[in-house]
Amino acid sequence: MRPEVVVVDAPSNLGLRPPKQGSVPGCYKMPWALRNAGLLKAIQASDAGCVVPPRYEPDWDPGHTTRNSRAIADYSLQLASRLHDVLESAKFPVVVGGDCSVLIGAGLALKRRGRYGLVFLDAHSDFRHPENSGRVEAAAGEDLAISLGYGDPRLTNLSGEGPNFLAEDVAVLGVRDFDEHLDELTRLGVVHFTSTQVSQATDQHLRDSLAVVTQRTDGFWVHVDFDVVDSTEMHAADCPEPDGLSFLTLSRLLGGLVKRERCVGIELTIYDPDLDRDGVCATRIVDCLGHAFSS
Question: How is 104-166 classified by DSSP, letter by letter?
């Protein structure tokens, strides 16, 4: 039997740049918008509360430190503690962000339990770090790098035990063909399949990814950035991209992941209700998840 599904809100926008000077990103409203669209009923989940983030500070001094890094570190520790309790109670957490930096806290919770794999569904590799970029800035574009130990030292080793995931335990799905860090992922041994590849052979790349994230691990986690979906279907993201997956393909992938016994949880990120005034993207997201969890 599948464990009880519970929703944990993680409404953090700490990992994003401000959309314009002096403003704050709207992704922190994602949990409430998806709840209003019927998320809990669609995935038959219970409410496991909210981990409240620190204040977002839009000002930032350029350099090799990440925006809001101290606040992200504190928040990641809080989120990890909450998720540890949920996982210890043998429940299946659905973490509703927020931006992609919530992966840091989720990864830390898993690191404290053992060795876990990661299925990373995202339009971008999120692998910017000081060794490949003139400057780092926003953790939502650096979260995979941070999770593998590359980046702002305030964030890469919160547990004192090294990276949250190992490169050989990660599968990246849906990244766009033009992503600038694909060669580096290849050198590091991070398996990745572009959106073009996944769309053409969805089931094959799902099987290949599952083999990667389960071969040497105690289980695996799923990260979803909704910009993995093509911008014609998903415009309410901070950086929508063309040539992406359809919501139908994403639903098939998620259904094939969350039904696996060794899948221990999932996080949902990068949907901005401020960019979705009529709520059409919220409805599409909830429908996608409803089909995935009922498959």
Answer: HHHHHHHHTTS--EEEEE-SS-----TTTSS-B--GGGTHHHHHTT-S-HHHHTTTSSS-SS-
Range of the domain at 196: 5-294
Which residue's entry shows tokens 């998903």?
A: 234
Is the backbone of residue 51 left (phi > 0), alpha (psi -120 to 50) or beta? beta
Measured over the CA atoms of residue 37, residue 275, residue 9 and residue 166, the dihedral's sign is positive
Residue 63 pLDDT level (bands cut at 50, 70, 90): low
Q: For position 60, what pLDDT does the model report?
A: 78
CATH at residue 159: 3.40.800.10
**Chain segment 85-129, per-residue pLDDT in tens:** 999 999 999 999 999 999 999 999 999 999 999 999 999 999 999
Q: Is residue 255 exposed (0-12), middle (13-18) or buried (19+ Cβ within 10 Å)?
A: middle
**Contact in structure between 94 and 5 (CB atoms under 8 Å):** yes
How many domains would you assign to the chain?
1
3-state helix, strand, coil in the chain (%, to 5): 40, 15, 45
